[in-house]
Design a protein that fits this description.
Blueprint: H1 2-34, H2 51-66, H3 71-91, H4 93-97, H5 104-134, H6 140-160, H7 178-200, H8 205-223, H9 227-238, H10 242-271
Helix pairs in contact: 1-2, 1-5, 1-6, 1-8, 2-9, 5-6, 6-7, 6-8, 7-8, 7-10, 9-10
């Protein structure tokens, strides 16, 4: 039982780290591509900095659905490769047995090693962020994203556990992914709040913009999800529940847009910040 628990925790940590690293790099590169340095489609205002990148990611998700059935061929090939690997391991069982993580002590050692590596990388990212921020370098955004990304992944994972539980004691709307919905709406609201903070701070605006952009790229980028949102809509549509898909789209986009616009616009109207 304990061995299974350790294996599960290791798997969850590895998946979270891979998702975090891939998402941060992808968003950062797309921001640079669409930003004022290259295509000039977005400016330095962090409010809609991720809009073009999210559109691209949504388009990529749609293309993934189009090639869904081609995965069957890949699964067949993977099955053959798996059998080949198993045969290879069977022939070398004696040499590989000593590396097998099959008891509590080995699990503790592996977990400690993974946590140590993660802590070292986190400390290294913090030091790089400090140096780059002192130089007012745009690359500080990426290092800050690495620092605040893991909490976003953790919160996203916690919210995902609400999916399938429904609303209230009667568990109404169990088909609605409440966790994904809350993650996206919450991210939209926090992103608007972070954007207005960058306008409210009149001292050292460049550093403030770097910090806000890094927070949005890392924490909010890992908290929000376009791919899961698109996959859930596709799953509803494919199972013959088109009205559920449309309802899910509406209750995600409308509250997110309304909340973000309200949080951002009210201070601008009251304090007359420059838009």
């Amino acid at each position: 039982m304990l061995s299974s628990l350790f294996n599960f925790l290791l798997m969850q940590q590895e998946l979270s780290e891979r998702r975090f690293n891939t998402q941060v790099y992808t968003r950062y590169l797309l921001q640079k591509l669409f930003g004022p340095g290259l295509l000039h489609l977005t400016g330095d205002n962090p409010l809609y900095l991720d809009l073009p990148s999210n559109m691209v990611l949504s388009l990529l998700s749609s293309w993934i659905f189009l090639v869904n059935y081609s995965i069957i061929v890949g699964v067949g090939c993977a099955g053959g490769l798996r059998r080949s690997i198993i045969d290879w391991c069977e022939k070398r069982r004696t040499n590989l047995e000593k590396w097998r993580v099959n008891n509590r002590n080995k699990h503790v050692v592996v977990m400690a090693a993974v946590l140590l590596i993660w802590c070292l990388l986190w400390i290294l990212s913090g030091e790089f962020f400090r140096v780059k921020l002192n130089r007012v370098s745009d690359s500080a955004v990426l290092w800050l994203a690495f620092l605040v990304g893991p909490p976003g992944v953790w919160l996203r994972w916690r919210l995902a556990r609400l999916n399938g539980r429904g609303i209230g004691s009667k568990q109404m709307l169990k088909w609605l992914p409440i966790g994904t919905l809350l993650a996206n709406v919450l991210a939209a609201g926090i992103m608007a709040a972070a954007a207005i903070i960058s306008k409210a701070v009149s001292v050292d605006t460049k550093r403030c913009t770097i910090i806000v952009s890094g927070f949005q790229l890392g924490f909010l980028g890992c908290l929000s999800t376009v791919s899961t949102f698109a996959a859930e809509i596709y799953g509803m549509w494919k199972t013959g529940h088109g009205w559920r898909a449309f309802f899910y789209i509406i209750v995600t986009i409308v509250p997110s847009f309304a909340l973000g616009t309200l949080i951002y616009s009210v201070p601008v109207w009251l304090k007359h910040y420059a838009s």
